[in-house]
Amino acid sequence: MAQQGTIAVERMDGSAAVHAEDAFRLIYAEAFAEPPYYETEDDVAAAFRRFPVQARNRTFRATLARCEDAEPVGMAYGFPLGPDTGWWDELTEPVPEDMRREDGHRTFGLMELAVRGPWRGQGIARRLHEMLLDGIGPERVLLNVHPGSKAASAAYRAWGYRKIGEARLWGESADLHDVMLLDLR
Length: 185
Description:
30% helix; seven-stranded mixed sheet; globular; alpha+beta
C-alpha cells in the first residue's frame, strides 16, 4: 500500500475533467483491468469515447485525487439523470413508476468511482464520493456495481446505499450488476 501522505481532492466541471482526461483514463484503466472487471484496452477506449460526451452535460461533476507529486490516484464522476434516462430500463425486474421518475434534478447518476490499487484502504474513495456529492441538491444517488467487487459493494453499503435490483449493462452478454440507491434526504 502506498502511503497516503497528502492527497488533494479537486472538484471539477466537465470542461476541467476533459482537460484532465489522461488522469481519469489512467485510473480507470488500472482499476478496471482487475478482477472482477477484466477490462481491456478496447473497453477503456470505448469508455473514453463516452467520457467527453458525458462531460458536456452542463450538470456533469467530477472529483480527482492526486498525491503530492501530482500523480492521479482516484476519481469519481457523474451527473443528474434526465427525464429520458435509460438507467431504469436496464434493470432485470421493473421498479415502481414513482421510483423511476426523473426530472434532471431528482437523481444523481454516479457513473464511475475508482481508486488505484496502491492507494486503496485509506479513505480516498469516501473523500472523492463526499466531495462529488457535496452541495449537489438531488434527493438520491444511483449507481451500478459489479457484485464480484466485494470491497466496492461493502463501501457503498457502509455509506448508506441499498440494493434495489440488478441490471445487465450493455446487453445480454454482459455481467449482471447490482443497482444501488442512496437516499440523501
